[in-house]
Amino acid sequence: MAKRLSVDAYVDGILNQNITILSQAISLIESKKQNDQFLKQNVLLKILPYTGKSKRIGITGSPGVGKSTFIESFGQIIANDFSLAVLTVDPSSPITKGSILGDKTRMYELSQKENVYIRSTASSNAFGGVAEATYDTLLLCEAAGFEVIIIESVGVGQTETLIHQLVDCFILLILGNSGDELQGLKKGIMEMADLIVITKADEKNRHLANQSKIEFLNAIKLFHHPLEKWKVPIEICSSLENYNIDKIWNLTLSFFQFLYNNHHLETLRNHKMKNWFLHELEKMIISTVLNLPEFQNEISLTQKMIEENNILHFEGIKRIQDWLNQKLKI
Ligand SMILES: Nc1nc2c(ncn2[C@@H]2O[C@H](COP(=O)(O)OP(=O)(O)O)[C@@H](O)[C@H]2O)c(=O)[nH]1
Ligand SMILES: [Mg+2]
């Protein structure tokens, strides 16, 4: 079993910006062990007053679009003025230390900077709870004084929506050189984006990327950003050639300025936290109910009936529903 510190040792270490202790606290946060839950909650409660001050940025987009490479360049520009923590979930790597190598090699220059902290979690470790642990990790990094926090999304499924709830500014990366990309993007994800970036606009592709930019500018006229007055910018960049990355940072800063000027930030975070709470609540209820031995018994019985062709699946659902209604007296 991993070595654990006292609540105060974690809290003091984090507040004193001790990176080793910060990393140990994040491992504690990621732990699913029942024994760790109490310690974890106490650490979180104690650091809570020191959180909330960072600029929280989410980077999303399909696997391979260039998120990690973008963060490598983008992060270096940010780190000229701010301390930066980068939280990534590495989908490529198996269970072992590979994850740390995976993203850290992609973000090598960035990881060498003194005021930058990169935390990469293997998705196999974080299965089922990627985003949950990420929020608590973000809070720890804020308490440790990081001024900007970037979360790299794995770019698939529901995680994207969840990451969106955790950040103030959500940047969607897309590939410019195919109409398919425009077709394939879901309306939902487009409407969540505060900024859209067309990646891999290397010099030889720049003309094409600019054409895509015009297409996208037309396409997003059909979408509605939740903040009416915000016109979602679209910009092209090349992370490998360091083209336009500074411009994208300026656009990000202008979005934050927009949030500050209009007192949107607090409302936005509160609203997102309400959704986050609902998500967590749903998960808690499901796991509580599913773990009830009585309920499991009822499920096994019903499954057996379906297997033996005594009832159809929807009759099985009805059976469980009746059972639940009776238990809950509704
Ligand atoms: N030509 C070119 N390739 C890029 C650029 N950015 C990323 N890539 C490549 O795209 C591939 C996927 O990049 P990665 O950052 O791992 O994407 P992720 O899965 O979205 O994090 C890698 O082979 C990168 O070298 C770019 O600006 N130009
Ligand atoms: Mg990546």
Question: Care to give the gist of this entry?
Answer:
The chain is 55% helix and 12% strand. The protein is α/β, with parallel strands linked by helices and 330 residues long.
> What's the order of the H and E elements?
HHHEHEHHEHEHEHHEHEHHHH
Major beta sheet summary: 7 strands, parallel
Percent of residues in beta strands: 5-15%
Which small-molecule ligands are present, each listed once? Answer: guanosine-5'-diphosphate, magnesium ion
Strand order of the largest sheet: 3-2-4-1-5-6-7
In total, the number of strands is 7
Name some characteristics of this structure.
330 residues, alpha/beta, Single alpha-helices involved in coiled-coils or other helix-helix interfaces, Rossmann fold, 3 domains, seven-stranded parallel β-sheet, 7 strands, globular, binds guanosine-5'-diphosphate, binds magnesium ion
Please give a structural write-up.
With 330 residues, this protein is α/β, with parallel strands linked by helices. The protein folds into three domains: 50 residues, Up-down Bundle (Single alpha-helices involved in coiled-coils or other helix-helix interfaces), CATH 1.20.5; 212 residues, Rossmann fold; 37 residues, no CATH class. It has 15 helices and seven strands. A seven-stranded parallel sheet has the order 3-2-4-1-5-6-7, sandwiched between helices. Helix 7 packs parallel to helix 8. The longest helix has 27 residues. It is globular and about 65 Å long. 36% of the residues are buried. The site of magnesium ion has 3 residues, from helix 4.
